[in-house]
Amino acid sequence: xxxxxxxxxxxxxxxxxxxxxxxxxxxxxxxxxxxxxxxxxxxxxxxxxxxxxxxxxxxxxxxxxxxxxxxxxxxxxxxxxxxxxxxxxxxxxxxxxxxxxxxxxxxxxxxxxxxxxxxxxxxxxxxxxxxxxxxxxxxxxxxxxxxxxxxxxxxxxxxxxxxxxxxxxxxxxxxxxxxxxxxxxxxxxxxxxxxxxxxxxxxxxxxxxxxxxxxxxxxxxxxxxxxxxxxxxxxxxxxxxxxxxxxxxxxxxxxxxxxxxxxxxxxxxxxxxxxxxxxxxxxxxxx
Length: 287
What we know:
Elements: H1 2-14, H2 26-86, E1 94-98, H3 102-112, H4 120-125, H5 127-137, E2 141-149, E3 152-159, E4 162-168, E5 171-176, E6 195-197, H6 202-214, H7 217-221, E7 223-228, E8 237-242, E9 247-251, H8 255-258, H9 262-268, E10 273-276, E11 282-285
């Protein structure tokens, strides 16, 4: 179109066509060069545009595919999550506790905060909180491990060392080695451990637990009962009943240290004796 137009202008301007043998004027030569430059420029522009179009089209298609894939993944995940929470598989069907007695198992279930029909995901996210609640309220528990499988919550218990049982209102509560008292009621003490009576506050129970920790296992299991019997002279006075029938009067804060002499004193006695460890160590026969 440009070339024809240019030719038309030349013809109109001069009123005739120049033949190939007739030399061009300087002005015509300049116009011819200009015309060639315009043709070359248009050709280059056309080539550049032609090269860009396939690339732009490819990039646009790639962008659309990526966007569609992201949307599919997003809405697919939303659909699967919604479906999971609707189906029964998402909820707790059974709670099991292992590692402790039946009474403690029920107490652990109650304080854990986990109930049947709770969402399994919710239980998973609250594992640490539930474990801390159990350890705080149940002194028999050192650690609580949660295993979730097939709609079942398994709580595996590692037991704390128990040094004896506190007697309160005809119920027995475990006292662990740290001096913490359990909230779990027992109708009788578990195992061959001593029973503690008349200990009123946490200061006394922690001191009691500290002394029990210092005893050998043979001496500890040889104790039947320990009663707090404070008086005006000795507020830490205790009375101890042994399984062998002997009795001991002692001061709580020095009890473990004095008990290392118990076997020697017992060996010298011919019958049942009462040993007084409050001041020194001496024994008298029981009547």
